[in-house]
Design brief:
This protein is mainly α. It is built from 5 helices and no strands. Bound molecules: zinc ion. Zinc ion binds next to helix 1.
């Protein structure tokens, strides 16, 4: 059930910056346009640091192209996962967030074995 209103990105959300660029444009040292695709997700203050990892791993151009292909109501979720993956990839260039998944899977198996042991006693 998608009750999406038929309009495009919804420019109401990006009305915060009077002259101050969003965090992404600040990091890229470019002028932040009124319809900047990054503005709703990267505030002017802390956004630049968050955007740095995303740009390093995926590239700003690739991320903007990707966002344009995603429905507007899902873009915030997409940015969250991209930011998470980028930070994981910066920490661990080989496995990225997969190392975290492996750790959680191993913990899950340990908890299952532990629960079996508790049942036996
Ligand atoms: Zn911007």
């Amino acid at each position: 059930m998608t009750s999406a209103t038929g309009n495009d990105t919804g420019s109401a959300g990006s009305s915060s910056g009077f002259g101050s660029p969003c965090g992404a444009c600040k990091f890229l040292r470019r002028k932040c346009a009124a319809d900047c695709i990054f503005a709703p997700y990267f505030c002017s203050e802390q956004g630049a640091a968050r955007f740095a990892a995303i740009h390093k791993v995926f590239g700003a151009s690739n991320v903007s192209k990707l966002l344009l292909r995603i429905p507007a109501h899902q873009r915030f979720e997409a940015m969250l996962t991209l930011a998470y993956e980028a930070q994981a990839r910066v920490r661990d260039p080989v496995y990225g967030c997969v190392s975290h998944i492996f750790t959680l899977q191993q913990q899950g198996r340990e908890y299952i074995v532990e629960s079996w042991n508790l049942k036996d006693n």
